[in-house]
Amino acid sequence: MLRNGRADDARTPEARLEESVGLAQAIDLDVVKTETVTVANPRPATLLGTGSVERLAGAIKADRIALAIVGHTVSPVQQRNLEKAWNCKVIDRTGLILEIFGERARTREGQHQVELAALLYQRSRLVRSWTHLERQRGGFGFLGGPGESQLEMDRRLIDERIIRLKRDLADVKRTRGLHRTARQRVPYPVVALVGYTNAGKSTLFNRVTRSDVMAADMLFATLDPTMRLIDLPSGQKAILSDTVGFISALPTHLVAAFRATLEEVEAADLILHVRDVSHPDSELQRGDVLAVLKDLGQGERLESDVIEALNKADLLDPEARASLAAQTARSEHSVLISALDGSGMPEMLALIDRRLAADRKVAAYRVPHDDGAAVSWLYDHGHVIERHDEADGAYIEVSLSPVEIGRFERLHPTAERTEPSRAAGSS
Known about the structure:
disordered C terminus; Rossmann fold; alpha/beta; 16% strand; 4-stranded antiparallel sheet
C-alpha cells in the first residue's frame, strides 16, 4: 500500500508501466493501449510535452478510449488540461490506487480511511472526475453512484464530510485501542505479515492458518487486516496478522490516512517480511517496504525483529532456487518458501518459533494451590522446566518471554515471583 519520500528512479520505465497495468487490471479495467513517455522537463500545464499530448490525443480518439491513466502524480490543472486535450477522463496513479482501495475495503474503519483519503485527494479536483469508473463498473461504493449527492458536492460539503470522518475514525481508533488492550491479556505473541503488494502474503496466511482470506494474483487483494491463531512446532501459539500491501511512490497524506491500519505492525512481536523473489524488482520492493517500516518508527527493529520469507520459490529456475536455498539454509533471518505449493513452511514456522523463543527467560513462581487457572496458564503458554508442590503452593519454573512474564503477572497477581533454583537465562 504505502511508500513515500524516495525517488523511484532505479525502476525501469517498463517495470513502472507493468505495475500501472497491474493496478488497472486489479479493478477489471480493460487496458487497450500502453506507452512510456520520456519527460525531460515536465510542463506545469500538461506534464507532457506538446508533441506527446497531440500524438496521444490522436491515439485516444482512434481507439475510442474513455479513460487515460497517467502513472505519475498529476496536478489538478494538468488533469483538467489533459482531459480537454484528450476529450476523455484522466486520473493519475494516486487516483487509481484510491479506486482500488474503494473496492477492496470491507470493514467500517477501512471504508472510512478510504473515503477520507479520497476526499483529501479530491478536494482541489473536479468532483465529477470519479464518475467514469462508476459508469464503467457500476460503482464501487465509497462515494456512492452516479446521480447521488457527491456529483454536486462543493468544497464546503467535502470539508464537512472530512471533519465527520476524522471524528468517526478517532472513535474507531479508541475502540481499536481497547481491542488491543484486551488482546494483550491473551498471552500470545503477534507475528505481522508485511510486504510489497502482490508478494503473496494472503496466500501464505491462508496456507499457515488454513483460512480463506481473499488471495489473488492482483495488486491490493487485501486491504483490511486479518488475524488468526497458529500453532508453532514447540507447541506454543502465536497470532498471525495479515496486513495491507505496500507500494512505491504513494503521497504522504495517503500514508497518514492508513496509519491506523498499520498499528498492528507496530504492536507485533515479530515482523515476517514476505518477498516475491521471482520478481525482477524484488530488491527495490524490499527497499520500499523497509522504508515504510522506518517511516512507522520501526527502524531499530529491522535487524532484530524481522524475518524475510523469500516467497514464490516455485517460479524460480532450479539453479536460482538451489542457490537461494543454500544461502538461507542456516540463516536466522531468512527462509525460502512457496506459499503456493507449501515448500519451506515447516522451516519457516520453526524459524518463527526460534526467534520468538530467543529472548525467553527462566522465571519461578509459587502459585497458591487454589489458583488452578494460573498453573494452567503457565503450562499453556510457557515451557515448564520444573514443578514441585509445597505446603504454601506449587513451585513452578517456566521459560517465558519478557512480554509473557508481564502478562502473566498482570493476570495472576496472587502468584509470587521467586528466584529460580537453576541459572536464569534463555531456555
